Amino acid sequence: MDKNDMILISVDDHIIEPPDMFKNHLPAKYAADAPRLVHLDDGADVWKFRDTVIPNVALNAVAGRPKEEYGLEPDGLDEIRPGCYDVDERIKDMNAGGILASLNFPSFPGFAGRLFATEDQDFSLALVRAYNDWHVDEWCGAYPGRFIPMALPVIWDAELCAAEVRRNAEKGVHALTFTENPAALGYPSFHDPFWNPLWKALVDTDTVLCVHIGSSGRLSIPAVDSPPDVMITLQPLNIVQAAADLLWSRPVKDYPDLKIALSEGGTGWIPYFLERVDRTFEMHSTWTLQDFGGKKPSDIFREHFLTCFISDPVGVRLRHDIGVDNISWEMDYPHSDSMWPDAPEVLHDLLTRENVPDDEIDKITHLNSMRWYSFDPFQHVPKEKATVGALRAASAGHDVSIKARSHKHTAAEDKLAAFSAQIKAATAHTAS
Amino acid sequence: MDKNDMILISVDDHIIEPPDMFKNHLPAKYAADAPRLVHLDDGADVWKFRDTVIPNVALNAVAGRPKEEYGLEPDGLDEIRPGCYDVDERIKDMNAGGILASLNFPSFPGFAGRLFATEDQDFSLALVRAYNDWHVDEWCGAYPGRFIPMALPVIWDAELCAAEVRRNAEKGVHALTFTENPAALGYPSFHDPFWNPLWKALVDTDTVLCVHIGSSGRLSIPAVDSPPDVMITLQPLNIVQAAADLLWSRPVKDYPDLKIALSEGGTGWIPYFLERVDRTFEMHSTWTLQDFGGKKPSDIFREHFLTCFISDPVGVRLRHDIGVDNISWEMDYPHSDSMWPDAPEVLHDLLTRENVPDDEIDKITHLNSMRWYSFDPFQHVPKEKATVGALRAASAGHDVSIKARSHKHTAAEDKLAAFSAQIKAATAHTAS
């Protein structure tokens, strides 16, 4: 397939929320208490909500930035691409990257919206709903066919969460961002009947449970003084814990239509994982009493899980061991793992190198994600205008560079020190 | 290659320590205080040391047992194969399994011998030395050429640990069992200069640092109520954390000859892992300041790490992405992941299915582990008597079955309840 003929849907990108996002959607009585974006003297913008300050970690918005300027120091909105937070600019960046459509995860509230869980449940629910209405109606609504809408959960209450899933489903939303491990956040685990109302709402509305890497709130690092490379290396690999926890769980047995996406989870580890779960079943099910009705765990995985990758040679080579119907593609804009704006080139080189036939390319690049997320962009964008080539032609002249940082340049040594301080602060309350 | 012509060295098996192991090696003044094996009324044998009771978890000694009898309840020595704890019987079992030689990890003291770390450092050191003398002189010494000797570390003191490495090296020992994460055990991490004397002793004596899965003392389970299958699935996958932590560490840079074995770590995850570390380096080294002198992290991995597998189709298929010189084989006797006594059949089927040529079979089955552990069994056992076929011919008539459990049969529901209780007890002090 010619690179320009690919149709790309990315199932994992990120929004850096804009300051005015609560304006139109939060009841007036809560307006003064809503999280707000604050501009600091050093040029950084941070979200403040009650006692919590959430910096916009620069690695999360590096699209267009030279590697030499990577780091963890907070950025200002004026230092990142406007496509991070402005939907009109996002569409231009998507066009320049040849991307037809995109599923956008939240940033400052956390993947499961846990920031909004306060002692005032009415206020908390209002925040979740406001976020969802802004995301679905304003952000996704501005460009029909260009975004797969996704709701934030009501993470502290399964009944309210189910209701929010149903409310959003009526607006055409079929994705829920969630945590890869509610137990790690202090809520009942996936194995607890607590969540039954949620599972039922998800299958009733054909909504996908999206568990993004890093959404457990647990830092998976071996030691406080492990170099940052260790954490970066391990980030996508830790999703294997969520995959195992969900695959062996009761919900996938009780709700045969339950759909789960391992967001930003990569694919190269899955063939080994599937061997391991089948062998575990073969050796131990006599005493663990696992029963999949005559099926193997690997069958169950393929019935329930959608995987995705950015650029993953091993996963593409072993795609038939994973299941070609279970693999989707993602761009991860504007994070540092993203290949934007050259994502189509990187992907096409890989698919060509691995001799992936056209029908499998179509499944991986868009058909699987369309089916999984009940999403049909071609209702709004004709196919001939949806290709990499057509989208890029429409965006000719769009500048894909980034402004140099306006605040003081940080030396690598200082970036490392900042990383170390952040890890120590994050682990201080859990240190054994 | 014919199955009977394979020469098998297993780099990961386990000893269930016999009750008289301290008899000949501990100074008399400590004899009364040594750990002792106690026979309980219910038929189980447990090790007792001060306030600690360590049951012989039955899953750790199931060789020969039908799967229906698997479980976590403690066993008595009279319920497990004598080959678990009696070296003469072990050799017979090795012969029946076609195994030339074996590296044996400890059981009740923990992989890093942490049980022996008391407030009385002289006593603790005496225990470590006694264990090592028993293991090296009695167990391995009884059958030259049949065991790769391995020492327990002095986990609480790097200088003493270095001295113990040197003392054992003089007796021909080139393996040290260690923890995959000293920080998780409360000691300085791999990144701390604390361990420098140990690194130096290891490279001076060409001794391999063996980090076995599960040796961090951390339970890697998503939730307390995750089914046991989750933990069983994840066990080999968690070694990826140690691999990342060591690969990005200073010791592999400062000690170019440092050799590390990822014991029972499997291989199928490694091609994906190597892609990930190279990409991490490519994208982030400008600010993380990683520098491997012009090499890539995957090069460093192949210089420093030996991997192993029991039966791992993905790893064998992708052996050239891992490095054929970096893969060894293991049997895991007498644990539940072991294929004994049919390990040669399982391995040979896999190697045949994946069309592995003879020279690569030899590397994987014995040449890599001989080189890595400075071990030459052929000084003692002529090659023609070292093959699967020759060893089995010599053991004809050896009974490979197991006695039925002598204590009350445990229903699966009760095994699950026991598992749940164990997990709750193990996590009680770390629950957040």
Automatic annotation (TrEMBL), chains A, B:
Looking up PANTHER family in the UniProt record yields: 2-AMINO-3-CARBOXYLMUCONATE-6-SEMIALDEHYDE DECARBOXYLASE, ISO-OROTATE DECARBOXYLASE (EUROFUNG)
Q: Does the keyword Hydrolase apply?
A: no
Q: Which residues span the membrane? A: none
Looking at the record's lineage, which domain of life comes first? Bacteria
* Any Gene Ontology biological process: secondary metabolic process
Query: Which GO molecular function entries does the Swiss-Prot or TrEMBL record give?
Result: carboxy-lyase activity; hydrolase activity
Q: Cross-referenced Pfam families, in alphabetical order?
A: Amidohydro_2 (PF04909)
Alphabetical keyword list: Lyase
Provide the protein name: Amidohydrolase
- Where is each Amidohydrolase-related domain found? 82-375
Coiled-coil positions are none
GO CC aspect terms: cytoplasm
